[in-house]
Write a structure and sequence with these properties.
By secondary structure, this protein is mainly alpha-helical. 60% of the residues lie in helices and 1% in strands.
Amino acid sequence: MSQDLQIILYWLSIALYSILVPLGVYVGRMNVRASRREVVRDLERLFQFAKSDEAPLILPSFELVKYKYDPESNPGRSSIEQDANSFRYYLFPVSMYVILSLLCFHFAFRGGESSNFWKPMGSLGGMISYAFFGGYIWSIQYLIRRIANFDLSPISFFQAFMHIVLAVFVAAALWFGILQSEIVANYLGKGVEIGLAFVIGFFPDLFLSILIAKFPWIRLRRVSEASKRLQEELPLDMIVGIDPFMKLRLGEFEIEDVQNLATINPIQIFVETPYGLYEVMDWVAQAQLILAVGAARTLELRKINVRTIFDLEHCLKNDTLRRRAVRALLDTDGTELCKYEAPPADAVAKAKGSEIPLNEMDELQVTVACIRDDLHVRRLRQIWDVINSRLDERPARDKKPDQAEVRPEPPATPLARAA
């Protein structure tokens, strides 16, 4: 192979390495948008039955997801508004990322078998090269996560660019400041600096942000005992039906704990993940109960089969369940609180949908009212009521077993997993 052809193939290969990531990110973003927009449009057809006073019922939870993936369907969107996702906004940050990757790949692979990549031990070039490799792989993971969350923006490429630059400079500073010392080199041994450089590529701040998050006292700021008692972690494993793999999957969408799950839009989770709508709604309802009453009280409520935020309302009238709910929620065995007080007529008139009328003079009912009055609970109830009303419309048929209607299998659609 001639030398000119080798040079051409060399530059072509490193150019492809530099351009493939932004190109793949663009293609992936378009594919994610198209596939999720199809699911959103199927959901729109599903919700067309919901009406209020003969007018289509507007579900804010659905409309927000709809306009996210199909902004052209927003009637209030002006056609003269500038598109924030226009290619010209990405041109400069993507060019910076591509040029930096091209230069770093050239720095790492130049010279063939004598390059910084093949003979890295004991060299500054090798340490910088492997710090770049670590930062480059981190940037791929970061950009893919931005695609999955559909929040890719020009800032995402600036962030990836700055991460790689910081990794390279930190690796060089450590080389000149510490690793050139013979004492340190003899203690670490040969080749250790390469592994260290690769880790620096992932964590160029040298784990300082992780340490500060784990040990706030490093910032030399005093944290009171009351604040420490409020620092409670509510992992997703507390939810019935979420296993470690599902927890990891939800973590990719930055749903890290029960609070994130309790306040998320369930329609958004359904559109962006492979999980069914009913399953997601059950998870969110469980998370809202845990967030409202705490882990210890939720454990007591589960003993009486109160598992979700809406189950809590159904134990108010029954004397036995009410007594146990009083003990679980109010930490008291007061007999005066175990007697059910019927709500007044105005409370009954104000109740909407599946809401159970409550008496504000009753301490237990007021507690339940405060819990269910949060916006994220009301949003879940609206979706719950719309779907429940559709299920209630199914006609009851009184047919003999031999007259049962044989219905064909429904066609496979993206909404098949919602049932």
